[in-house]
């Protein structure tokens, strides 16, 4: 099975004809439904999610029978489009559905029909399935599987961090994940209460919930530790609390808009801390909408930051910043540097040329 990240998924959605079905395989909480909804809403197409694992009867899919003279017909189900506009039918938890529910999907996946009702032209069918021993799963019929193009969805931590920057996720969380990305989706082999089926591990939705709780808390307490443990699990919470306690984390926004306030603290940072700050700077440049005045401030402070790295003789830190600049992850940031910070651009290009 081929692995794809978020950017590759978007390209697949762009290139795949509407009459071909797509199946995404992956853990829960990695953003499958959110990314699909955002993509198709941007294309003015309604996404209709059906959570098949929650359906106990085929009638939830095909609708209820009724009489039409001497014939029995089925009324269209609640989700069926009656305005003849194409939809994206998102079949979530496909391999957690009951076998009798799965049988109703066969004709839908092949012919875009269900109980005699035809989906509007241009409609898409996309399914999502869970993968792993921790789930109670239903084996899928090979005939059903053959009707889907199948991809294992593996969004990168960097993609999540860019999303988190746009969403205003607490800087302590983005700093922690940038520093220890394995904790974004949980470290394999660490499970609690596995024999009860109540193991709690981190996922991307969970870190969003943590951010909602701590965003107005300048200092985290023991009670915060307990609350966070109930969201992402004890091991992840312990690692995060240690990180938050040890790091008066300087964010990219701090560097670009308030450099003088954080300059002394940056001078005490080690290489791994400066690398995390540089990534945060690039994420901020990629996602932040600066006012004209802020644009000038950010360009000036970015130059000061690069100069500080040089003064500290932190060649590894400059190398890391140049690597971020030279990657394909931050097109908006690169454009900002080229257009607004010519000296920084020349420094980075010169450094890259000497590698």
List the helices and strands and how they pair.
Layout: E1 3-4, H1 6-15, E2 21-25, H2 32-42, E3 46-51, H3 59-62, E4 65-68, E5 71-74, E6 87-92, H4 99-111, E7 113-114, E8 117-118, E9 124-129, H5 142-145, E10 148-153, H6 157-167, H7 171-179, H8 204-214, H9 222-232, H10 234-246, H11 252-257, H12 259-266, H13 271-287, H14 292-311, H15 315-326, H16 331-340, H17 342-353
Order of strands across the main sheet: 1-10-2-9-6-3
N- and C-termini, Cα separation: 36 Å
Helix content: 40-55%
Q: Rough shape? A: elongated
Mean pLDDT: 86
> Tell me about the biggest sheet?
6 strands, parallel
**Beta content:** 5-15%
Order of helix and strand elements from N to C terminus: EHEHEHEEEHEEEHEHHHHHHHHHHHH
Radius of gyration: 25 Å
- Derived from helix and strand composition plus strand pairing, the structural class reads alpha/beta
Low-pLDDT parts are: 192-197
DSSP, total strands = 10
Number of helices: 17
Report on the structure:
The chain has 355 residues and is α/β, with parallel strands linked by helices. The protein is 51% helix and 12% strand. The chain contains 17 helices and ten strands. The strands form three sheets. A six-stranded parallel sheet has the order 1-10-2-9-6-3. Strands 4-5 form a two-stranded antiparallel ribbon. A two-stranded antiparallel sheet has the order 7-8. Strand 4 and strand 5 form a beta hairpin. It is elongated and about 85 Å long. It starts with a strand and ends with a helix.
